[in-house]
Amino acid sequence: MSLAAFLASLDQLATDGPARIAAADSLEAWSEVRNALVGRQAGRLSEIMNGLGALAKEDRREAGQRANAVKQALEGALEERRAAIAAAAATSGPALDLTMPGRRTWHGAVHPVSLVIDEVIEIFRELGFTVALGPEAETSWYNFGALNFPADHPAMDLHDTLYLGDDQVLRTHTSPVQVRTLQQYPPPVRILAPGNVYRRDFFDASHAPMFAQIEGLVVDEGVTFADLKATLTHFAHRFFSPTTRTRFRPSFFPFTEPSAEMDVACGVCAGSGCAVCKHSGWVEILGSGMVHPAVLEAAGLDSERYTGWAFGMGPARTAISRYGIPDIRILYDSDVRFLEQFAR
Questions:
Q1: What is the DSSP letter of 195?
Q2: CA dihedral (54, 60, 64, 67) positive or negative
Q3: Strand runs (DSSP E) across 59-209, as ranges?
Q4: 330-339: long-range contacts at Cβ-Cβ below 8 A with a sequence spacing of 24 or more?
Q5: Nearest partner of 337 among 102, 109, 101, judged by Cα
Q6: Which is nearest to 259 in space by CA: 245, 272, 248?
Q7: CA distance linking residue 185 with residue 308, whole number of Å
Q8: What is the pLDDT of residues 188-232, one digit of tens each?
Q9: CATH number of the domain at 112-342, please?
């Protein structure tokens, strides 16, 4: 190919290209024109440039410069046409109706379990309690041994407890915080221990493998079961209502003796019996009891001098009872539509 023929082909492309670009009336048509003119695989400019190697060496410089000039001109025209097509498409649609209401936005709120925890802490803070925290990964001694669990207790089996190693577990209750606090601070002690605990439970409407728990502990000289009943009854009257009826039922826990479970009159049926209270008229809210002397001794205290009482409650179940939540799994969904109803 001669230089003259090469340049003539470029001139013809420079003349025909702008007209074809201007005729493109959509982005699809524009894309087809672009590929036909400057596409790397089958574009007209690429076909012409394939003949560059056949030119005499002294003619290649001029031919290359002319080809670059044509390419830049075509690409500039293509970009202008693309912008014009996009602008036309933006203004050709339906008019924006500024009178239409905006789309509703969801607003979250404090989680109901957190609401219960905060309220419980505030009630007991007025009675002189402080908050104490501890690790969620515990040793077996703090989680079981120091709390007077016998070595063959079922709670220590693999089907109940999540073990991290030979002597490490994910705590099954926040009671280890009680022992750690008694080891660190001398009586008198009044603490609340809120936190997450872990058990090998199936995730169903009333159980979860991880849930929140709050435990309380009082240790001092001369503490009696009457102090336990008076304090927890005061709490129930503050948390539920001043007229809420309460009762204590004998129970058993390895770390307290005597032990008792505390019930309140069902708030749904006012004690007449319903599905929530299983037609008993009462709803259990916590377990409690006098701290076992073995627990005090494990913490390094003189059980002949000091006595104490403790309680434990699940704020998730309390939240379910208070707010009428039918399924505990709802508390774990992080659904903003559910949470917004608790906005203060």
A1: E
A2: negative
A3: 130-131, 137-139, 168-170, 189-198
A4: 331/111, 331/112, 331/113, 332/208, 336/106, 336/107, 336/108, 337/106, 339/108, 339/109, 339/110, 339/111, 339/112
A5: 109
A6: 248
A7: 14
A8: 999 999 999 998 887 877 678 889 999 999 999 999 999 999 999
A9: 3.30.930.10
Phi first, then psi, for residue 264 (nearest 5°) are -125, 155
How far is residue 64's CA from residue 133's CA, in Å, rounded to a whole number? 77
The CA distance from 257 to 251, in Å, is 9
pTM for the whole thing? Answer: 0.65
Domain ranges for the chain, please list them.
3-92, 112-342
Is there a contact between 192 and 120 (Cβ–Cβ < 8 Å)?
A: yes
Given a cut of 70, whether residue 299 has pLDDT beyond it is yes
Residue 325 burial (C-beta neighbours within 10 Å; 0-12, 13-18, 19+) = middle
- Residue pLDDT, tens place only, 321-342: 778 777 788 888 878 888 888 8
161 C-beta neighbours (distance < 10 Å), count: 19
